[in-house]
Amino acid sequence: MTPISKDDKIWADDLWEKIKAxxxxxxxxxxxxxxxxxxxxQYIDKMAKDLYWWTNSFYPGILWLMYHxxxxxxxxxxxxxxxxxxxxxxxxxEGLHHDVGFQWTLTSRxxxxxxxxxxxxxxxxxxxxLLAGRYNPKGRFIRSWNAWGGGIDxxxxxxxxxxxxxxxxxxxSDEIKDPRFRYIAMEHADTAAEKIVRGDGSCNHxxxxxxxxxxxxxxxxxxxxxxxxxxxxGQAWALYGFALSYSHTKEEKYLNVSKKxxxxxxxxxxxxxxxxxxxxxxxxxxxxxDTSAGMxxxxxxxxxxxxxxxxEKSFYLDGAMKLLKNxxxxxxxxxxxxxxxxxxxxxxxxxxxxxxxxxxxxxxYFFIEAIHRIQYPDFRVW
Length: 382
Prior knowledge:
Layout: H1 6-30, E1 38-39, E2 42-43, H2 46-49, H3 58-70, H4 73-92, H5 100-115, H6 118-132, E3 135-136, E4 141-142, E5 157-159, H7 166-175, H8 179-195, E6 206-209, E7 216-218, H9 232-249, H10 252-269, H11 291-307, H12 310-331, H13 361-375
Antiparallel strand pairs: 1-2, 3-4, 5-6, 6-7
Helix pairs in contact: 1-13, 3-4, 3-5, 3-13, 5-6, 5-7, 7-8, 9-10, 9-11, 10-11, 11-12, 11-13
């Protein structure tokens, strides 16, 4: 890990103590519920309503990070209780999609890393096989979503978010010494680099490919402002995802893509004082905020700082620290009686009110991952 300045380390240490205090009370209150959005400061159980919802793993991911630091058995107990609930999703199967990477990396794969529970290993390998089974060898991509209603054909749809699901395949390849998983992950990453990432480092959210040939058919708007715009959380997924593919493969092409996206992200977020809008190419007024994009990008930038030569490190590290400091100073809620920490996350630009500038669970997860990484430079989640 690139050494940060003494002042930044003091700042991060202080913040980590605040996180531990907040999570200690929150964990006891939440138990094995699986939160998504805090409503009036209280989490509800999202998994009880949607077994397959893509964010269901972020809270147990937080629990495992807290367990790694504190060794407090309440974190382990609650994380394992949630992991057991995920078995119904595995057996249900039909509701699963490309986000099995998120769902089982932050539950079973992380559980196995920290506890060596053999059942967790099997669950994570099962999920990796499900993800690999979504691979289209003609088009060289992993299909994102299952069939939708309303006449929309998603057979060839690929979203940039899937770059963060690939580490489960890299892990499986190493774990059982089978290169097939790595080949699938790399071919998907190659397709994303060629057809999702634009020349200036910005990204589409969704691309639609011909499932028979892989030819690019269209670029639907997705969760951003418009076709051709720049949804910030998508840029953050890409920044971090390609950096992770570089770490797993040591292929310089992925590092270069991640750096290009990082330069675009940092040059764009500067005008917003490092508080990301939902879309970098949306109208300046009104500014819609998405703090989750900044938290994800900060993790990607910290990872990049570990991956580049010494003379490049400070650029990415400085960007990560500005995002973490500016967002937490303005939008962190440290009240122990209220669930969630980071406020003002927005799921997508054209969204319903209940998911607009609200406390999203993945904002908290990536915030905690970033500060945890500063505390434990050699520990890797992905």
